[in-house]
Amino acid sequence: MRFTYPYVPCGTLYGVVKRPYIPVRLEGRSSSVRYLAVVDSGADRSMIPLQTARFLGLPVARKSERRTRGVGGEIGVVQSHVKLTMAQGTNRLSFDRLVVDVPIRNLVMPLLLGREGFLERFTVCLHPRGYVTLDIDPDEKIHGRSSEFNR
Amino acid sequence: MRSVDRDFDFCVKAMTTSLRKYEGLWVAIADGKVIAEGKNQRVVFERARRENPESDPLMVRVLPKETLVV
């Protein structure tokens, strides 16, 4: 099963960059909403903004806050999980319980789809011709599988 | 190349043009056009659904140009 999307040209201080965004549906306790999310092959894990987590009604337990450090500095995050669905034409793929990190502060950030529980399931190609493809073995049973979390 | 998703294709065409004026804001896109925008995504989504109850809007945060995804 293959999902193919053209890059989205975005304006930055350094001119136009083409980002590998894909449309996904996220579903929590209170809402089911379509979003643009970045395929972030360099990210260890997926991350969504606090505002999005609250809007979807995701469980966000502040007591489980952890400090994490990335290229942008150190932030507190809590772990949550969300149902994610990709659909393109007749192709449809769901991750029932994708683990995501949620920053505890409101940050201006895109939704980031990282490797653990998501990209590790695909063969991802960032094509120089201007599109991203995500291939998955049709025999792999994603639906109903849970992402694991190292406690 | 098109993606089969009209709202996504709108983003591909408009992110550096008509969507620039929404920099820093959330926008709700349905039927290939912006139907609501604002700072709070819940408010934007609800406004979009009020505007077009049948819609299933694509929610997009238009990132400020200072933003680099690293």
Q: Helices, strands, pairings?
A:
The complex is a heterodimer of chains A (151) and B (70).
Chain A: E1 2-6, E2 8-12, E3 15-19, E4 21-27, E5 32-39, E6 46-47, H1 50-56, E7 66-70, E8 73-88, E9 91-103, E10 111-113, E11 123-127, E12 131-135
Parallel strand pairs in A: 5-10, 6-9
Antiparallel strand pairs in A: 1-12, 2-3, 4-5, 4-8, 7-8, 8-9, 11-12
Chain B: H1 6-14, E1 26-30, E2 33-38, H2 41-51, E3 58-61
Antiparallel strand pairs in B: 1-2, 1-3
Counting helices, strands and paired strands, the structural category of chain B is alpha+beta
Overall body shape of chain B? globular
Low-confidence blocks of residues of chain B:
none
Going by helix content, strand content and strand pairing, the class of chain A is: mainly beta
Task: Summarize, please.
The complex is a heterodimer of chains A (151) and B (70). Chain A is mainly β.
